[in-house]
Automatic annotation (TrEMBL):
<keyword id="KW-0175">Coiled coil</keyword>
<dbReference type="Pfam" id="PF07687">
    <property type="entry name" value="M20_dimer"/>
</dbReference>
<feature type="active site">
    <location>
        <position position="108"/>
    </location>
</feature>
<dbReference type="InterPro" id="IPR036264">
    <property type="entry name" value="Bact_exopeptidase_dim_dom"/>
</dbReference>
<dbReference type="GO" id="GO:0016787">
    <property type="term" value="F:hydrolase activity"/>
</dbReference>
<keyword id="KW-0732">Signal</keyword>
<dbReference type="InterPro" id="IPR017150">
    <property type="entry name" value="Pept_M20_glutamate_carboxypep"/>
</dbReference>
<feature type="active site" description="Proton acceptor">
    <location>
        <position position="169"/>
    </location>
</feature>
<keyword id="KW-0170">Cobalt</keyword>
<feature type="signal peptide">
    <location>
        <begin position="1"/>
        <end position="21"/>
    </location>
</feature>
<keyword id="KW-0479">Metal-binding</keyword>
<feature type="coiled-coil region">
    <location>
        <begin position="326"/>
        <end position="353"/>
    </location>
</feature>
<feature type="domain" description="Peptidase M20 dimerisation">
    <location>
        <begin position="209"/>
        <end position="308"/>
    </location>
</feature>
<protein>
    <submittedName>
        <fullName>M20/M25/M40 family metallo-hydrolase</fullName>
    </submittedName>
</protein>
<dbReference type="Pfam" id="PF01546">
    <property type="entry name" value="Peptidase_M20"/>
</dbReference>
<dbReference type="InterPro" id="IPR011650">
    <property type="entry name" value="Peptidase_M20_dimer"/>
</dbReference>
<keyword id="KW-0378">Hydrolase</keyword>
Length: 415
């Protein structure tokens, strides 16, 4: 955190006394009381299908979440997520302090209508199963029940808590990303509740996520009879092949940028010199400047053609941006690790190759907000029939979020 924030925090010492005086045991007791209610909430949420774009199911979840937020004292707004349907919910709780903290996660899943009926929520030993149980309905439940715990503790030293539940993350958040960018700009900290992977006794938060871009290579040649007049044709498939070989090293190992060509199409009939050919590629990166570099390099490279009179075009479309390595996120991760140590538990700070909405909350041109990802439940096999969360991750994860909010209320001041 910025030194100025710390100074402000000290200036408001009167307000933060409660947080310091509260024994951590009290927090642990309060979140312990939330374990069963959280599992009940999770069961209710998981048993409502809410695949991205399944508006009837999304609306049911939305109604339920609105009621829960209002019961916690939040004022709730809905914003239509245009691309796939459903609404983004924004709930705001006013406190007596200064810090602005946002808690964010999606409530859509990757599972189609009928999945919840086929394999509803169930618990076997330490594992809870069901569609979206970890990704990310577990995260929704952690947010709601951390707020319950704060209410039990009588804690309201934050300035404003903003809860954001969006309905379209699994398809890229096209209908909620602008809102996320706009709301996050007003925050000191943004906590994102995607699930984390469990490994033995330790689990993790995410400090870096890769961005994704989509590469397109298109070649236009000229068709001609392959038997009668092959020389009059301009073979787009041959030109594409030449270009793909030239464009195979657009990645940068030092920067961990990758660009892999994954789809190729071309030609139509065996006796026709193909007029058109195209390829698509998947680019992953941490460093935002890699977009320009790859685009410029590729456009230089394609100038070198194998076959005259073919048109070659390279395009790069922007997908989800990265959450790059940054000091604000590192500071939040350290804070989280310290809190986990209070429980005698290890917390890793990891990088992941996939993108999440944390990237939309991050503002490269500003030191705020600090963004931390993966505060949801610990589990695994996400997006599969065996998706699960660990029941014994519920209490540590509730403790982590509740204490994070208390600590952030302590040390940060809003504008
Ligand atoms: Zn997710």
């Amino acid at each position: 955190m910025k030194p100025s924030m710390l100074a402000m925090g000290l200036a408001y010492g009167m307000l933060t006394t409660v947080a310091h005086a509260a024994p951590h045991q009290e927090v642990h007791d309060a979140v312990g009381q939330q374990q069963q209610p959280l599992l009940q909430t999770l069961e209710t949420l998981v048993n409502i299908d809410s695949g991205t774009g399944f508006v009837a199911g999304l609306n049911k979840v939305e109604t339920l979440l609105t009621e829960r937020l209002e019961a916690l004292g939040a004022e709730v707004e809905t914003h239509p997520a245009e691309a796939y349907g459903g609404n983004t919910l924004v709930g705001r709780l006013q406190g007596n302090g200064n810090s602005h903290i946002m808690l964010m996660i999606h409530y859509d899943t990757v599972f189609g209508e009928g999945t919840a009926e086929e394999r509803p929520f169930h618990i076997e030993e330490n594992r809870a199963y069901g569609p979206g149980v970890g990704d990310a309905k577990g995260g929704v439940a952690v947010i709601l029940h951390s707020l319950e715990a704060l209410e039990t503790l009588g804690f309201d030293d934050y300035g404003q808590l903003t809860v954001v539940f969006n309905p379209d993350e699994e398809k890229g958040s096209l209908g909620s990303r602008d809102l996320i960018q706009q709301l996050s700009a007003e925050q000191d900290a943004v906590l994102v509740f995607e699930p984390t992977f469990s490994e033995g006794d330790s689990d993790a938060v995410t400090v870096v996520t890769k961005g994704i871009n989509y590469a397109f290579l298109e070649v236009n040649g000229r068709s001609s009879h392959a038997g009668g007049a092959p020389d009059e044709g301009r073979n787009a498939v041959m030109e594409l092949s030449h270009q793909l070989l030239q464009l195979k090293d657009l990645g940068d190992p030092d920067k961990e940028t990758t660009l892999n060509w994954t789809i190729v199409e071309g030609g139509s009939k065996r006796n026709i010199i193909p007029e058109q050919a195209r390829a698509e590629g998947d680019m992953r990166y941490f460093d935002s400047s890699e977009y320009e570099r790859v685009l410029n390099e590729a456009r230089d490279i394609i100038e070198n053609q194998l076959i005259d009179d073919t048109d070659v075009e390279f395009r790069l479309e922007k997908g989800r941006p990265p959450l790059p390595s940054n000091p604000q996120t590192e500071a939040l991760a350290e804070q989280a690790q310290q809190i986990y140590r209070e429980l005698d538990r290890e917390l890793q700070a990891v990088e992941i190759g996939g993108g999440t909405d944390a990237a939309y909350a991050y503002h490269a041109d500003s030191s705020t907000p600090a963004v931390l990802e993966s505060l949801g439940l610990a589990g695994g096999r996400y997006h599969s029939d065996e998706e699960f969360v660990l029941v014994d991750s519920v209490v540590p994860r509730l403790y982590l979020t509740t204490r994070m909010i208390m600590e952030l209320s302590d040390t940060e001041a809003g504008d």
